[in-house]
């Protein structure tokens, strides 16, 4: 793991909005079907994909900008097109460990949906295409779903101290799953919520 520098003066990085890549890139994570296996509804489809190879679902790049008294992070995610069964590729989704922390997402290319839900069950969804910026209030879990034919690229801005809590979303998912029906994205009740 690379050491995160402390910036005492202004700094710039180069960013390619078509690929989501930073130069330099301080953190890169690849998320494959196996990393999200339990989150997809169609488990036989998951197992069939894993039997044939563990395909890439999305990449996350983060560039923390740490000073002596701040901890902003600029992140980019590229979700590749595809489905597991009829369910579209998506991010894992997470709450913040600190429930007082918001986040900003900016869609640069592609199309899909940003799902958001509180622990109390207030579910919101934003339709996404290039140019949409969404403020995610504190205490909302969030996940992005790529329903397009090409990559969905978005930028995130958050405080490093917010942390990530993936466990609640991994255990229950969101209130709805986004699947393809008759060639169109459709929201269906999450079968894990009725079990």
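-> sequence recovered:
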């Amino acid at each position: 793991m690379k050491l995160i520098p402390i910036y005492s003066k202004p700094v710039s990085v180069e960013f390619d909005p078509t690929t989501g890549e930073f130069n330099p890139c301080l953190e890169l994570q690849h998320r494959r079907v196996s990393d999200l296996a339990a989150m997809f509804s169609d488990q036989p489809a998951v197992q069939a994909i894993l039997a044939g190879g563990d395909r890439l679902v999305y990449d996350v790049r983060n560039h923390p900008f740490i000073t002596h008294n701040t901890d902003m992070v600029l992140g980019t995610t590229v979700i590749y097109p595809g489905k597991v069964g009829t369910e579209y590729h998506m991010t894992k989704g997470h709450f913040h460990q600190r429930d007082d922390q918001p986040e900003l997402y900016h869609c640069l290319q592609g199309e899909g949906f940003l799902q958001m839900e509180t622990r109390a069950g207030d579910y919101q969804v934003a339709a996404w295409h290039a140019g949409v910026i969404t403020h995610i209030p504190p205490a909302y879990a969030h996940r992005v779903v790529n329903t397009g034919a090409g990559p969905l690229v978005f930028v995130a801005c958050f405080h490093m101290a917010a942390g990530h809590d993936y466990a609640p979303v991994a255990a229950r998912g969101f209130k709805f799953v986004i699947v393809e029906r008759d060639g169109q994205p459709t929201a269906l009740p999450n079968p894990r919520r009725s079990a």
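The chain has one domain: 14-194.
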